[in-house]
Design a protein that fits this description.
The complex is a heterodimer of chains A (239) and B (403). Chain A has 239 residues and is of the alpha/beta class. Chain A has helices at 52-59, 82-92, 108-120, 125-137, 153-165, 183-199, 211-215; strands at 9-18, 26-36, 41-45, 67-72, 75-76, 93-96, 171-175, 203-207, 219-224, 227-232. Helices cover 33% and strands 25% of the residues of chain A. Chain A starts with 8 loop residues before the first strand and ends in a 7-residue tail after the last strand. With 403 residues, chain B is of the alpha+beta class. Helices cover 56% and strands 17% of the residues of chain B. Chain B has helices at 5-17, 19-55, 98-105, 140-146, 149-152, 169-175, 206-211, 217-223, 243-254, 261-264, 266-304, 306-314, 319-355, 366-393, 396-401, and strands at 61-64, 111-126, 129-138, 153-156, 164-168, 182-186, 192-201, 212-216, 232-237, 257-260. In chain B, helix 1 packs across helix 13. Classes of the chains: A alpha/beta (239), B alpha+beta (403). Chain A binds chain B through residues 57, 60, 62-63, 82-83, 86-87, 89-90, 95, 97, 101-106, 114-115, 117-122, 163, 167, and chain B through 2-3, 5-6, 9-10, 13-14, 16-17, 307-308, 310-321, 396-397, 400.
Chain lengths: 239, 403
Amino acid sequence: MSDPANPVLRLEALRKSYNPGLPNEIEVLHGINLSIGRTDFAALIGPSGSGKSTLLNLIGLLDTPSSGELYLLGQATSGMDDAGRTALRGHAIGFVFQFHHLIQAFTALDNVLMPLMLAHGKPDKAALQRARELLAGVGLEKFAASKPNQLSGGQQQRVAIARALITEPALLLADEPTGNLDTQTASEVFELFRHFNRERGCAVLLVTHDPRLSATCDRTINLVDGQITDYAAAPGSFN
Amino acid sequence: MRSLWIEWTLAAGFLREGRTQSLMITVGVAVGVAVIVFISALIQGLQANIIERTLGTQAHIRLLSPDETNVLLPVPSGTVHLVQEDQRAQRLRSINNWQQIIATLDQQPLLTAVSPVVSGPAFVRRGEALESVALVGIDPDRYLRIIPLARYLVSGQLRVGAGDALVGTILAADLGVRAGSKLRLDTGQQNSTVVNIAGIFELGVRELDARYVYLDLKQAQSLLELPGGVTVIDLTVTDIFAADTLAAQIERLTSLNAESWIETNAQLMNALTAQSLSTNMIMVFVAISVAFGIASVLSVSVVQRTREIGILRATGATRQQILRVFLIQGALVSLLGSNAGIAISYGLVWAFNTFGPGLFYIPVPPILVLLAILLATGTGVLAAAVPSRRAAGLDPVVAIRYV
């Protein structure tokens, strides 16, 4: 499914250390090489402290690598300033966090629209239409006017997924998106990722601890002690 | 430039959500602004009233002949000259060349009125009663621009022509006269005349009401044996607080002694200055405490919203946008608060004017209102700067994980 010549994301010898230059310098990622294709559905797995979240933050341009290069949609990102990174992140990447993370003061619809509003100001009719479609897509068309505190955890996470997709990102990043949900809701949310990966053709990279979920992914990327130990290209190869 | 719609929307949303906090700080700003506006209006009203009362009965600048001094013979150089002199008694005498001086002063744009006056001592007699008074000979057209006697007239007519005089209420009471009565004026120079009391005035200053007798310039000149002369030139100026500098200029121009009201009322000026200073201090400290209030509430809000700030950053908000969201919150809170404060201060002023002691009226100048709103909003934005910078500087990675 993936096109190796034109990946959505490519990491070359990516390293990340904390406290660089100090005696307590810690290198968390030791030269990561990784490529994610345009339609990949990949799971990033590994024990706690292996650097999964650090890697996800780097990929999401929320954090900067100590060395190495990160290509997003073919663009090198090392020389970019905060505004450039924010702009690229805004249109290339959708984020889903473990804790739904909605803005409490705004309705579900406004939360879905937030990335567009931050980039372009007041939403137009087309944007509103798309936000309603996405809410319908996650089964929440009736809750457009609800505030986050009126929604269940699973519903909030589905709003967050709709928000991540509003900019039609090329890559959807999810940091333990189901970690906070019960099994039934978790698999529903997981199915949504699957659905959008197939329907909209956006690459998905999700961090998970749940082996049952990662087993259903097309790829698993195993990160141990800041290094990728093996690729599993086919479902079921993780045991 | 892209509009700030989303920043305003987020700021308003955050303020709405933190309703109690927003309300408290808005009330804080309102109280501060109300205090500032009310005190300013009160003090301005009070000072304007005091100045008006003081200047209502005196000229802003008085020009007098320089004192006569002893002229000493020059001594050969190298000689020590010991002198024991008595200062000369200052006789009543006319300002030299006063017509020309008045013609010159009439051309000065900073002077609003120029009035030649002849004044000197006299006695009034009625029956057995004898009172010492000050004769004031005036040119009514010019003098009324200095002191609006018409406003102070309590009975009779404002008329000083041939044989007519105006006296104060206290003098009238002491002598038992009223408008239409006759008085004998005696200047002690074998000169006396009987005048008709045309009107009685009350300037509100005891000394003046007991001693002033207004006459026509010519009649006073002849009574005081200063035919064609004047002893004082009264002036009013456009800017009363510049009266002393203007007095110094006129002194150089005319080589007469110029006394400004600021000099003669030095005590009053001191009191007014001290009062203004303490008012300004109060205002500055109120403004500072309001600023700290805004800053601390917004700082708490930034901490509370750390995670939401992280999400906003992750979903495409720039540092600048986050900065503006919090600056706008500061501006909104202080704008709302200052408007409420203005309303409160109007209420206070109204209550003061309606139920207060009624000694004077407080106006609320629109410029003060505008200034208070601008000042409060500026202070709000400034106070919001520190927490806003903190919010904008948050690392999104850390902020998102903040619990």
